Amino acid sequence: MRSVHRIAFTLDRCRLDRELLATRGDRLALTRTTVTFEDGDAGPAEVTCLQVLQVDEHGRFTTMLAFDVDDLSSACNELDARHAALTVANLAWRAAERQATSVNTDDWESFAATFTPEAEADDRRSGIALILRGEEVRATHHVLFTLDQKRLMHELVATRGDRLALAHATVTFEDGDAGPAEVTYLNVFQVEPHGRVTHMISFNADDLAGAHDELNARAAALDGEAEPAANLAWRAAQAQTKMVHTGDWETFTASVAPGFEDNDRRTGIGLVTRGEHALSVYRVMFELDRCRQARELLATRGERLALMRSTVTFQDGVAGPAEIVSLNLFEVDERGLLTRLTKFDIDDLAGAYYELDARAAALEFEGDPLAIPRNRAVRTVQQDGWTLISALDDNLCLHATTDGFVVHEVDASGKVAAQIDYTADNRRAAANEIARRFHEQHNVPVLASAMTTSLNAHDLAGARDALADSCIVEDHRQLRVVAFHSADEWLEIMASTLAMVPDYLCEILRCFAAEPWGHSVLTRISGTTTEGSPFESLHVTLSRWDSHGRAAILGIFDPEDPSDAVARLRELAP
Prior knowledge:
There is one protein chain. The chain is of the alpha+beta class and 574 residues long. The protein contains 16 helices and 25 strands. A hairpin with a 6-residue loop joins strand 11 (256-264) and strand 12. The longest helix has 18 residues, at 72-89. The protein is globular, with a radius of gyration of 29 Å.
């Protein structure tokens, strides 16, 4: 493209004039462009066209599309299509859209799930100047859901990267005898890598300059965040990049594990290859006249996973230079050999992060899925003679002590935030307490979270109330005795179990995945039968709740199959 535009600078005279016709956000503009020029003996000439111009976050041109000057309809359609594409690519904007959809469908649980537990709302509108955090944010916005009529509309104004968006918000509502009213304002949305809102800053509708200043300041702060630490996977990826540049095919093949899998999930490809077939795809890179690869590290998980932005530029024969940009998830074994490479569209950051976390969980399960992890809480409070029973997230643990049981919760620094002691005959209360804290910090709906405590109390009515009327029970175990078809059939089996095991105890031992729509945990059921025999059963439980806070799907998996449960949980994402 540069060589084409270079011609303009070789002419004797050249003038470029643009008339702005329309814009979309900060990165798209439609112009009427006129070029007048003359060269040598050729008299002056003029060319006029319509142009759709697109720039990146730094204001550098990425696209210039020309249309006939009388083809305004096609140019406008292209402008809107590119604006929609940019909108889809931004996590923060998608979070804003989810909030609007939740309000307009009266789905409070879905709306609340768009925030992180520690989210901050900073309202800087005239006469308000209020900062709220955590539960205060959700409590304030819940007022919207008590109104008789309400509607929230967002219009995208600007984005910065994938985690920031500036939107114009319009709320229309009416309640009781009060007639319809309308409120407009500007909102800056900031999200974490998974797309949940961490900060929401509101401005007067006419304070566009202030909103833009905040947007730019937060973009600069995110750019200055500490880079993810290099790990074994990242070092292996860098080494492979050098092999591509030096054309060292033999060393490249030696850096790949037998059975290597290439999983290309980019739009229009969707291809999985393995072994020699997968390697043949990469052989092409070494046969080009010129091939360069640049990688930027985005995130790591442990030593074996690295998510990166990959840019491959190449040239072959008479074909001019070309460039391919994508997201790559690089996975290696303990030796640093590449075992799996998963590719995503450059705008599918959410999908790439989901896969990164899913693979991290799967790698953790490769060891012993029944082992209770030594999380930060365990490392902080563990004492000789204690037996670890449960470790949830990184901050909760339950131990059996010489005197009874103790639940601990620690903060981010490892300092003990709560310690609750129980006597030796009160294990059930200890199990209920750690489950309650786990459910609370993941905003599990109250009804759904009551399942464990209800079963421990032999309260089948309470357990039934935790289930949606249309709840589906999926039993994925290899040796299942009964095929469940409904929640009521499952409860009949539970009633028989409670009758046979009077001291029935249900404990959550570890968490494999927790999402706003559900979680997957390792559960142990134990007790003594009426005949005096010890009883114990372990399985992985999946719960997916509906908008009313009840379990809509219950999944039961063998304890050796937690990765299947996590995969199923991802499939059930709203």
